[in-house]
Amino acid sequence: MKNYFIPTEHNNYKAEFLKTKFIYIFILIIFVSNSILPAFTFAVNLDISIGKLLAKHNDKRLEFGLKEFKMSEKLNQSAQQKADAMLNTNCWSHYCPDGKSPWDFFIDVGYDYIHAGENLAEGFSTVERAMLAWFNSPSHRANILKDEFEEIGFGIATGNFLGKENNTVIVVHFGKERLVEKSTPIIAIESPKDGEVVNDDFVDLKGKAKNVEYIDVIVNEEDYGSIPVNGGIFTSRIDNLNEGFNRIGVKPGNINSENTISVSFIINKQQTLIKNASILQSSSHYVNYVILLIIVLVLILDFYYVFTTRVVRLKHELQHYHLGLMLVVLIMLYTNDVFSSIVNKAISI
User: Fold this and answer.
1) What digits encode the pLDDT tens for the residues 183-221?
2) Which pairs with CB-CB distance under 8 Å and at least 24 residues apart come from 272-278?
């Protein structure tokens, strides 16, 4: 075993483990681990969801004593439009496609902002890694913790992007909308809250109404039925919500007044597939860590014996296999997203 790991006279001062055939084996293992194996783990992208993104952003806000973001239907629309546009045109910039500014996307969905911001990310397989990169970047961190921002929206698009199959683009839009004077409504929805995210396909609607006996309920622009008002209070269960955004409105039958909220129903599809994919993805990372650790340890031993052995001349101290091993390490760093997540791949305004 000594000949495999330590340069000696018996192996011509070149550890067997560092010879060309092993370098080829390293490259093959890394290629399979980082290129072929992830092709079978595309479902891990499903682990990035609007619900998780909102939860992680609000966790950070609460950690720093700030108010939680409220989900905005308009900002979700603007962020999704930006994500789709980036994916379809293969562009990676705040000002794309064709120089279009992020603020144009806000305006396109009718978001009359006082404050607005945008964070972008691509190539991350989990929300945790994306948040780590954003929070390690001063500009992204500033957007997440900016006190002036009150609302948030997310866009997620997956496909062939920047030369990578099953790549994921994440767009986050932050904002505060200009307040418009409105007449005092005679009805008010107290539960669920506007922008709330639920995990079930139903919500229990509760609210107060004044000077009316019945309330008409509208769900996603369709009449849901009428419910009675008892003691100024109305309640009803709204079933069969659509996945994603749902608009719920209540209106006194013959009075020109309406109170409307939006609720997001998030469903976690293919949970088993996601777990299996995550295990495969973790196995890929484990292979890289083990190989990197072995290479570093053997290189340290190799350099130590090379530079402390008088038999080896100066011109032989750095041989071609050292460069080959360094190339293996560089390939690993480039292809493995455990290491690439340390590098800030997101950009921000």
Assistant:
1) 455 788 899 988 888 888 899 999 988 878 888 998 988
2) 273/43, 273/46, 274/43, 274/44, 274/46, 274/47, 276/43, 277/40, 277/41, 277/42, 277/43, 277/44, 278/41, 278/44, 278/47
Query: For residue 79, what are its two tokens?
Result: 């962020």
Q: How far apart are CA 103 and CA 116, in angstroms?
A: 8
Structure tokens at 20: 């060309």
Distance CA 140, CA 347 (A): 8
Q: Which residues contact 279 (CB under 8 A, 6 or more apart)?
A: none
Higher pLDDT, 32 or 111: 111
Phi then psi for residue 129, to 5 deg, are -70, -40
CB neighbours (10 Å) of residue 342? Answer: 13
What's the N-to-C CA distance of the chain in angstroms?
55
- Contact indicator for 140, 190 with CB cutoff of 8 Å: no
